[in-house]
Write a structure and sequence with these properties.
Length: about 220
């Protein structure tokens, strides 16, 4: 067995070189295919970038609630595109092709990361608002309401300057300010001095009727 190692090794070497030479045409074919796939992929990324800038979650005409859904949709798209990119890079390395960066993909990823932080703040606000709004008027704790609004405002103020300059942040900041601006009215309405006649006057002024016993009235109502 030891004496046959040299001949066995030589046969293995010759077989591998023969297989390698036979694959030259095949490798060339796959180089062309991979190059074409790279061009197609870049076109997809250019279109995605344009779509993102024209009608994405960071556009000023996009409603914040719609923006939350849009952001989730773009995150799913980016996850799929990253898989395609990884496969392409592997193929390019395998066939000794130049691996070039994909700037349109990277720029969109960076923008999505920035918007994610802003929309996370908006989602926190919506959850807080929903929890408070569903409470019965009698159970509503003004201190908790005010503290929650203050905490959200503090979080917004801690955002870095580059995020504060994004229009989506300004919209979220506006929502927070409007919510906090309405709190003094809620505080006044929760005053123990409020009597049935006061609620009746409020109904007369606003033209809105509700249960003056306050058994079913919520902050949302």
């Amino acid at each position: 067995a030891a004496l046959s190692i040299e001949s066995r090794w030589r046969k293995l070497y010759v077989d591998s070189r023969t297989r390698d030479l036979r694959l030259i045409d095949t490798k060339h074919k796959f180089r062309i295919i991979t190059s074409e796939q790279d061009v197609e992929f870049r076109t997809v990324l250019v279109n995605l970038r344009k779509e993102f800038l024209d009608a994405g979650p960071g556009v000023s005409t996009t409603d914040l609630d719609d923006g939350v859904e849009l952001l989730a949709e773009y995150k799913r798209k980016i996850a799929k595109l990253n898989k395609v990119k990884a496969e392409l890079v592997n193929a390019q390395n395998l066939f000794d092709l130049d691996v070039k960066p994909y700037p349109d993909l990277q720029e969109t990823i960076v923008d999505i990361e920035k918007l994610s932080k802003i929309y996370d703040l908006y989602s926190q606000f919506k959850d807080f608002q929903m929890n408070m709004s569903s409470m019965l008027w009698g159970d509503l704790d003004i201190t908790v309401l005010q503290k929650g609004a203050d905490d959200l405002e503090k979080t917004a103020k801690k955002f870095p300057k580059d995020l504060k300059e994004i229009y989506t942040f300004k919209m979220v900041e506006g929502r927070l300010a409007n919510f906090k601006e309405a709190l003094p009215l809620v505080v006044n309405l929760k005053n123990d001095a409020m009597k049935t006649r006061h609620w009746q006057k409020l109904m007369d002024v606003t033209g809105v009727a509700f249960d003056t016993t306050l058994k079913t009235l919520t902050l949302s109502n």
